[in-house]
Design a protein that fits this description.
Blueprint lengths: L22 E4 L11 E4 L1 E4 L16 E4 L1
Antiparallel strand pairs: 1-3, 2-4
Length: 67
């Protein structure tokens, strides 16, 4: 760089950003058995950062159907 009072030299730095660790928990369902298939879907997540919500996990789904 050019400055009238200094001869500036720039040196590259390094920045290492580690991935945040999120925990995804599938939703539970407590119900009375009725002989029919029952379905529960969805999940919650903890450990998200910067005000993010589960909506950023667009590729994650959780559901189960059972008697």
């Amino acid at each position: 760089g050019i400055d009238q009072n200094y001869d500036l030299t720039f040196v590259d730095g390094a920045l290492d950003i580690a991935k945040a660790k999120a925990t995804v928990t599938a939703n539970s369902l407590n119900t009375t058995y009725n002989g029919k298939n029952q379905t529960v879907s969805g999940f919650s997540a903890t450990g998200l950062v910067n005000g993010e919500t589960e909506s950023v996990l667009s590729g994650v789904t959780a559901s189960v159907t059972a008697k």
